Amino acid sequence: MNELLRQLLFLPEQRSSLAREIDGLHYFVILVTMGGAALITLIGGYFLIRYRRRVQDTSRPYAGVLARPALLLETAGLFGLGFVFLTFWNIGTRQFVDLRTPPDDALDVYVTAKQWMWKFSTPEGESMISVLYVPARRPVRLVMTSRDVIHSFFVPAFRIKQDVLPGRYTTAWFEATAPGAYPILCTEYCGTSHSEMRGQVIALEPDDYERWLAGGAASTPGFAQAAADDAELAAAEPAMPVRGERAAARHGCLRCHTLDGTPHVGPTWAGLYRAVVPLEDGGERIADEAYITESIMDPLAVMHRGFSPVMPSYLGQITPPDIAAMIELIKSIRDVPRGAVVPWDGGVSGGGAPAPGGMTR
């Protein structure tokens, strides 16, 4: 039945772990709405025939003849519509949560959209343009941002579509259920070459993926090699934590933050990722990607308890790829023990004057 409905509705193949479930809601909505429309048509036709006006009935009072049956039908109809609405809402909400909650073992991929191309980076240091290599049957989390205008990342076979916004990170995840080449489209008009902003997800068997990591595209199956030939490959780059440390040094972040747990002007980055951060207003935050990005863009919005508000905003000064690399740097040292929070003493103990750089939250 699933395959029959998919072909009748001209839907692409279902090649992700959630695709069939999403299509199931699609089928359910279409069948219920079409069934409701057919039922209303039949009832309307019955009433047109059964209660049509006849010449011999014109002298007989008509008002109120159907008052009680009509009230019962209307009440039943309202309850039925409410039930259908709640059913749609419940299934849709559950699917929305599933689409926003990747498994814990998901492989992170950073996606940067720009007119008119997709760039992908992994924590292992692999960079790709327009072609994303992933292992089949393993969850992949996409952390996406844009360098210029609004784009939208859409893989029809995976049933995922997520807007990609400048100055913000949005996420989506998928798990390819079979090896293959799957097209990527941009579904938000982004300029004159919008229709050319295409790419491909290349899902490989785990062994093939490991060989690709070790030996590049030459080790991949034929369909993957053919796809790679149509895309510009990125130059070799160092691992993202290394790039993150370089970016942090370039922007002055390491003048106020340490990587080894030593207390300084700002909180140490060692052990920061996913840690509970105490706030000046008495609350707490989890130091995830959103918190770290907000700390860079608007450092005075929520202050880390025990530190002075000396950090300026870096909104528009640090590029999204640099922020992504710095986040991976912080992730890579999450197991390094953190030192005690010691407020800066103004340089008396040799800390030096605070320079504009890094997070003080």
Topology:
Elements: H1 2-8, H2 19-50, H3 67-100, E1 107-114, E2 117-121, E3 127-129, E4 131-135, E5 140-146, E6 151-155, E7 160-164, E8 170-174, E9 180-186, E10 198-204, H4 206-215, H5 222-229, H6 240-250, E11 276-278, E12 284-286, H7 289-297, H8 320-332
Parallel strand pairs: 1-5, 4-10
Antiparallel strand pairs: 1-2, 2-3, 5-8, 6-7, 6-9, 9-10, 11-12
Helix pairs in contact: 2-3, 6-8
Can I get a quick summary?
The protein has 361 residues and is α+β, with helices and mostly antiparallel strands.
Walkthrough of the structure:
This protein is an alpha+beta fold. The protein folds into 3 domains: 2-100, no CATH class; 107-229, Sandwich (Immunoglobulin-like), CATH 2.60.40; 240-332, Cytochrome Bc1 Complex, Chain D, domain 2 (Orthogonal Bundle), CATH 1.10.760. It is built from 8 helices and 12 strands. It has helices at residues 2-8, 19-50, 67-100, 206-215, 222-229, 240-250, 289-297, 320-332; strands at 107-114, 117-121, 127-129, 131-135, 140-146, 151-155, 160-164, 170-174, 180-186, 198-204, 276-278, 284-286.
